[in-house]
């Protein structure tokens, strides 16, 4: 059977691959602590589950919905962003998709012509580059010189090409957990507007902000920036709803309408039952979402100082959002005599029984990503295992 040459170039998701490897070991009975996954470990709050069950029982979840989502859900998304960020969108500026991952996929399909470039500040989430490739575009990795892995206008100036079409900004960032400050975003936004570049703002972690830090969405920084931005978010991380697959894009009505047309031929519509659950999540009491956020904050405060103090682990800035730590482990790898970060990660899994992801998946091969979406007890156990592993291997 013949396979498209372009598709054969696409790499499997490294985070999902690590997760699968870990789950296979666990299935064999090995006691692995899994810090490789990018999803909250809580189950979806009861009122959201109840809304889904009601939608099934009443029969309303039985049918196709509009391709771009139920009008009530689009309204709920507009209301929530108005409340949280003070920014106004109307339902014709919203499309609901099968997770934010498909929002991003759809964006690249719609905005890119073959051979056009998308700027991806390093480190970047594993799927952006492959999604750009699948849309026929070029992913341009942008080395970052700003504080804490953040891209500056000078970095963007150095990377821009005549065919640059878009720029992805992810804050809080996966994998580093760092947040862009308003002034940093404003400079980037003004630069993108001046070059007529579409900003893809991946705000999926915007509700997981810790220790009094503040989140700013780039769309709040002026009308011109807002008009140049496609804002991506979803319910997966805030409401512990990764399995339900509901994400969304907010942007100018014309682009959203075209995305709608493409989606109508691709997915039809996101699962109706998940859409009813998302309405309950966005319009209901936020108490449980806030409690989950507080739990992540507590875990960060517990585990960060310990991981940062491990020999050869370089993690000078405490993350401010999301649920990841992204230390540079170059020295640790050397201290233990491994040839590469990947060998170190493999040994952590098979010998210390702690699963993490190599930074190569995020274009920073000297780093590893540890997710703290796990119980405090497991996080402390994982720390003890890594510490013991280091003591055993250090030469
Ligand atoms: C940075 C980033 N963007 C988007 C997504 C996609 O989220 P979902 O498809 O679950 O809505 C993820 C999930 O891991 C992510 O880390």
UniProtKB/TrEMBL annotation:
Organism field: Paucilactobacillus vaccinostercus DSM 20634
GO molecular function terms noted in the UniProt entry: pyridoxal phosphate binding; transaminase activity
Homology family: Belongs to the class-I pyridoxal-phosphate-dependent aminotransferase family.
E.C. code: 2.6.1.-
Domain spans labelled Aminotransferase class I/classII large: 31-386
Keywords assigned: Aminotransferase, Pyridoxal phosphate, Transferase
One of the protein's GO biological processes: amino acid metabolic process
Record-given protein name: Aminotransferase
């Amino acid at each position: 059977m013949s396979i498209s040459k372009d598709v054969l170039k696409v790499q499997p998701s490294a985070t999902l691959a690590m997760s699968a490897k870990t789950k296979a070991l666990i299935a064999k009975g090995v006691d692995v602590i899994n810090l490789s996954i990018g999803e909250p470990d809580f189950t979806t709050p009861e009122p959201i589950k109840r809304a889904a069950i009601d939608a099934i029982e009443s029969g309303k979840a039985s049918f196709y919905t509009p391709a771009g989502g139920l009008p009530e859900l689009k309204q709920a998304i507009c209301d929530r962003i108005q409340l949280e960020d003070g920014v106004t969108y109307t339902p014709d500026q919203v499309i609901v998709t099968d997770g934010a991952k498909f929002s991003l996929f759809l964006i690249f399909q719609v905005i890119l012509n073959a051979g056009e470039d998308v700027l991806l500040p390093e480190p970047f989430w594993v799927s952006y580059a492959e999604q750009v490739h699948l849309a026929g575009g070029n992913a341009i990795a942008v080395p970052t010189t700003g504080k804490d892995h953040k891209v500056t206008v000078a970095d963007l100036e150095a990377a821009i090409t005549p065919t640059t079409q878009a720029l992805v900004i992810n804050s809080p960032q996966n994998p580093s957990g760092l947040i862009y400050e308003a002034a940093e975003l404003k400079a980037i936004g003004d630069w993108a507007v001046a070059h007529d570049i579409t900003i893809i703002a991946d705000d999926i972690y915007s509700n997981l902000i810790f220790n009094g830090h503040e989140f700013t969405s780039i769309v709040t920084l002026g009308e011109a920036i807002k008009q140049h931005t496609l804002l991506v978010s979803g319910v997966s991380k805030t409401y512990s709803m990764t399995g339900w697959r509901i994400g969304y894009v907010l942007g100018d009505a014309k682009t959203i309408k075209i995305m709608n047309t493409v989606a109508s031929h691709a997915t039809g519509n996101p699962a109706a039952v998940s859409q009813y659950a998302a309405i309950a999540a966005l319009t209901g009491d936020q108490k449980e979402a806030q409690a989950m956020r507080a739990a992540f904050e507590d875990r960060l405060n517990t585990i960060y100082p310990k991981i940062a103090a491990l020999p050869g682990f370089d993690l000078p800035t405490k993350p401010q959002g999301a649920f990841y730590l992204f230390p540079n482990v170059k020295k640790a790898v050397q201290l233990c005599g491994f040839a590469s970060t990947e060998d170190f990660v493999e040994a952590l899994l098979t010998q210390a029984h702690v699963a993490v992801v190599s930074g190569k998946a995020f274009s920073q091969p000297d780093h590893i990503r540890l997710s703290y979406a796990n119980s405090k007890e497991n996080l402390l156990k994982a720390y003890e295992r890594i510490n013991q592993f280091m003591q055993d291997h250090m030469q």
